[in-house]
Amino acid sequence: MIKGILFDSGRTLNVPATGHWFITPNFHKILGTKEEDAEVPSFEVAMDKAYAYVDSVKVVKDEIEEYALFKEFYTILLKESNYEKISEDIIHSLTKDNVQNDEKFLFFEDVEPMLKKLSENYLLGIVSDTWPSLERVFINKNLREHFKTFIMSSVYGSYKSEKLLFKLAVEELGISPNEAVFIDDSESNLVAAEEFGMIPVLIDRYEDYSIKSKYPIIRSLYELEEVLKGFEKK
Q: DSSP letter at 220?
């Protein structure tokens, strides 16, 4: 019997407002640049170097530490891209726009109604490779109330692929792995979830019908109820 549903966040429930996780809503306004400036190879190389730093910091416990992390990220990005007007004010503005701006994410239109409906019959949770400010965004968007557990990778210094986050989530829900469905847009994360004992579901938010998977595929949370009914019949 399925008792819980765990969701990834990024590209499952929400996407970056600009289409890029680190190009914030006011990024180009702050820098006085244009969108096409972020598409040149030199900028992409600078972004890769800045991300390598972020990826090297495994533990980020709270938004204070997250702010420090992304302050260094944008410092590296601007220096490596040879931005001429670099200053502390600009770096702080970019960092604030990343960490403190709730509008950095757009939620899919099915999220609010389906979370409300699903939470009436299932224990819901988030398991996401992300940073602490995500939870604040969910709180301010009135979505956090639907979840009984909210596990973020940086708080624990672990990724979904390592399965510790799954263990923490089901323990907080008080259920067994085989009583939980996990929904993610990444096949590799679903493999890890299956190895842990959960029931995987792949979500394709971009309606890419060329995608093949050994797991059930949904393209909207509205399709989830039928998939759940199928699991219950087995």
A: S
Q: What are 152's strand-pairing partners?
A: 128
Distance separating alpha carbons of residues 138 and 123, to the nearest angstrom: 17
Q: pTM of the predicted model, to two decimals?
A: 0.95
Residue 151 β-bridge partners: 127
Task: Report the 10 Å Cβ neighbour count for 148.
Answer: 16
If asked whether residues 96 and 116 sit together in one domain, one would say: no
Sign of CA dihedral 19, 21, 23, 24: positive
Q: In whole angstroms, how large is the CA radius of gyration of the chain?
A: 19
Place of tokens 């096409």: 36
Residue 212: domain span = 4-16+105-233
Tokens 């993610």 correspond to what residue? 184
Note whether 25 and 17 are within 8 A (CB).
yes
Tens digits of residue pLDDT in 182-230: 999 999 999 999 999 999 999 999 999 899 999 999 999 999 999 999 9
- Give residue-wise pLDDT tens across range 132-175: 999 999 999 999 999 999 999 999 999 999 999 999 999 999 99
